Amino acid sequence: MKNANLFVNKDILVLTSSSDIDRITKPKASLMSHVWSGVLKPKNDIVVVYNMANFQKLVNTFSLINPDFALLNMIPAAPNSLYASSSLNFEKGKVSLAQNLYGQDEQAKTYIDNLDAGLTKTRGTWNSYLPVNPLFYLEAGIKGDQLHNFLNDIPQITRIFMGMGESTASRLKAALSSVNGDLVLSMNSLEFNLYKPDFNFSAFVESTPELLDIILEELKESSLSSLIIESQPDKLTFGDKDLVLFITRTDKGLIISNKDGLSESSMLPKVENISSARYVGRKSIDINFIIDLKQIFSNPIMQLVISGVPQYKETGFDKLFEDLDYLRISGSPSSNLTEILMTCKADNTLKLLMDVILKASKYAK
């Protein structure tokens, strides 16, 4: 049996079979020597740091049980030197989650560069086409040719590409390569008439003129060809009795909407547009995604659903939902910020949440 050595000082106690105490207690690299050490700041409420390669292995294991878990791993295989951090903070009037990737070596740094390569800074190309307060909207700066290369490195996407016919795959590559600039998706309104949704949806793609021709060619050769209602030089009408899409070509790119008449001439005269919305303020970023929580929870149908929650008013859930303003996700794939904003700025959001939880616990059986 090996001898056991006991080392003691005022701070630590180590019981080991080794006589080399320096090798055990003095690691080659300290915690603060990592590239992600900057996230370990006292100002952060909760910080989680993890190795991306190990995270992907964990997701792959769970996806064997439930294939839906594969959606958490929609990026190329990460090197062992790639790390990620998530920093959660509760502030007055806001909950924020900052997520960042860090490369310990050149291989990981190159990986991060490639991850961001398919996106570019937004330019606000379509701002004048959008109403002042859409229900939700997504704005992203796209570099289509590099995005296609990135998608080819994702196993789940590669399998989809391999299942396509040669002509379809070629048109998809051409379509993505034609996109260069702002891509915007916007749900402008959502109403319920006798519980049947009536919505106004639009999409805007900054692209070269041939994108419409590529889409039309693909539709004509697919099983969806019967859904083509009308084809004009600069306009395609496509759909059925439940949903009709109008695709219009402009000098900036394509406009897609479920409402006819959405064009540059009809939209530009609007005085108020999304540029003056309360949640616009982050300029020139890769991705900007907004969900207007205030609009969602003020919807009569949503109010009816929420009111069915037991002790809805007694627990303070009603006030919490009334205080919700909007959710915003902004940044890039390698560095982004998720925020939930409240209309009330007086109290810390953690205090508001704890008050509701404590009240709800009294009614739990």
Describe the overall structure:
- Helix 4 packs across helix 6 and helix 6 packs antiparallel against helix 7.
- With 365 residues, the protein is of the alpha+beta class.
- The protein is globular and about 65 Å long.
SSE order and pairing:
Layout: E1 5-8, E2 13-16, H1 21-25, E3 46-51, H2 52-65, E4 82-91, E5 94-103, H3 106-116, E6 119-120, E7 136-143, H4 144-151, H5 155-162, H6 166-177, E8 179-193, E9 196-207, H7 211-221, E10 228-232, E11 235-239, E12 244-249, E13 253-257, H8 264-267, E14 287-291, H9 293-298, H10 300-307, H11 317-323, E15 324-332, E16 335-342, H12 349-363
Helix pairs in contact: 4-6, 6-7
Protein structure class: alpha+beta
Shape: globular
Mean pLDDT, nearest integer?
Answer: 80
Straight-line N-to-C gap = 56 Å
Rg over alpha carbons: 26 Å
Low-pLDDT segments, ≥5 res: 263-271
The number of strands is 16
Q: Roughly how much helix do the residues carry, as a percent range?
A: 25-40%
The succession of helices and strands, N to C, reads EEHEHEEHEEHHHEEHEEEEHEHHHEEH
Could you tell me the strand content as a percent range? 25-35%
Number of helices: 12
Q: Biggest sheet, in brief?
A: 14 strands, antiparallel
